[in-house]
Design goal:
By secondary structure, the chain is an alpha/beta fold. The strands form two sheets. The protein has a seven-stranded mixed sheet, sandwiched between helices. 33% of the residues lie in helices and 19% in strands. The chain is built from eight helices and ten strands.
């Protein structure tokens, strides 16, 4: 990762870091392998596309409010590219003790055995804090974001956790809207690799047609309801927590069988 702050009329401080005109130049001169994107919504898609063109392996986009049509262009560019996108509208990704790219509070994390994937940034922190308190810790935490079009989904993250020997348990946090949680549950249901998994769905009390916070959290056409998602999870053998406050204790129970 590269970047820098140069002195300006406002008295900005110089960080003694290189500053480049393009992402391609930065990659060529530094060998950068990750890019964190915080630029405003109207320009975020172009920033992601530039990173894809530069063949950066990992791009983490924190920006919220990127137009859906812009993300459709990005999604198309990601196909058959060398880039994995985390986000947008997400807290980022962290492997405690190794690397953090994002805005999550690093001090609540503890290197351990639970992989966490979530559409909600705040609930990611809740799951992290609780698994830290009970001593389970985390392998990697991935905030996939709450937008309807994103780069990495539940299936992508769950496949990585299932294939990771260090990850002994999984927490997946979803919310109303879309079918991403059902698709993730279906993967776990039919996977030959089985790991204790806890799920939680935010928005149980949301009325149909009401958008709750995230752009992707909207129920339409009778699809994307909390009960349907929770039933899909239970059908896949996932332990469904009844509230965010019970994520840690439910994970402990799941680990004990």
């Amino acid at each position: 990762m590269v970047g820098g702050v140069t002195p300006g009329k406002g008295g900005g401080k110089h960080l003694d870091l290189p500053v480049f005109d393009t992402v391609a130049e930065a990659v060529a001169k530094t060998g950068a392998t990750a890019s964190a994107i915080y630029v405003p919504p109207p320009f975020a898609a172009d920033a992601i596309l530039e990173a894809i063109d530069a063949e950066i392996p990992l791009v983490v986009c924190i920006t919220e409010g990127i137009p859906v049509l812009d993300m459709v262009r990005v999604r198309r560019a990601l196909d058959n590219s060398k880039t994995r996108l985390i986000g947008p509208n997400c807290p980022g990704v962290i492997t405690p003790g190794e690397c953090k790219i994002g805005i999550m509070p690093g001090h609540i994390h503890l290197r351990g055995k639970i992989g966490i994937v979530s559409r909600s940034g705040t609930l990611t922190y809740e799951a992290v804090a609780q698994t830290t308190v009970v001593g389970l810790g985390q392998t990697t935490c991935i905030g996939i974001g709450g937008d309807p079009v994103n780069g990495t989904n539940f299936v992508d993250a769950l496949e990585m956790f299932l294939g990771d020997d260090e990850t002994q348990g999984i927490i997946m946090i979803g919310e109303i809207g879309g079918t991403a949680e059902e698709e993730g549950a279906d993967l776990l249901k039919h996977s030959k690799i089985k790991k204790p998994t806890v799920g939680f769905i935010a928005g149980v009390t949301a009325p149909p047609g009401r958008r709750m916070g995230h752009a992707g959290a909207i129920i339409s056409g009778g699809r994307g309801t909390a009960p349907a998602k929770m039933e899909a999870m239970r059908s896949a053998g996932i332990w469904v927590a009844d509230s965010p406050a019970s994520l840690g204790s439910t994970m402990m129970s799941a680990m004990k069988g």
